[in-house]
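Q: Could you fold this chain for me?
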Amino acid sequence: MSTEHPSSAPMNLPRTGISVDVHAFASDQECAAHESGTVQLWLAGLHWPGERGLSGHSDGDVVAHAAADALFSAAGCGDLGSNFGVDRPDMAGASGERILREAAQIVREAGFIPGNIAVQLIGQRPKFAPRREEAQAVLTQSAGCPVTVAATTSDHLGFTGRVEGLAAVATALVVPQA
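A: Sure. Below is the predicted structure, expressed as structure tokens.
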């Protein structure tokens, strides 16, 4: 009979990660500070003309940020802040696509293959369904694995219901490289 604990045996099992990302919509002051007088909304790797953008060090793309952070969680590679925090001036204004692409690369360099990412967007606006396929294609290209995005409202409850910002929850699956 072996006394070795089963968890110490080498295993090549998939690993899962979860994350949440939240950003407020840009304030009137933030919009006024921009040359155009507005902050553009970037969500799920797409520009959403006519919608108020999100506050953040980067572009504030909650969908792409949650996807990236879920990859970090699954691979045990820290989190969004430890990899792309505000202490990195090169990330100021960075696109969600770039963040997701670089996160996937960090995870691969750590010895994992991204398997898939699922993201749930929570907010009253913009209406996401008409651009779902386009967003999934952009995010899948950036991550190098399938990315699916679902969207829901919070039935006018909480900060997303009051249209003060957006939130996203994501899960990711990674597999150790052989």
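A (continued): Confidence is low (pLDDT under 50) at residues 1-5.
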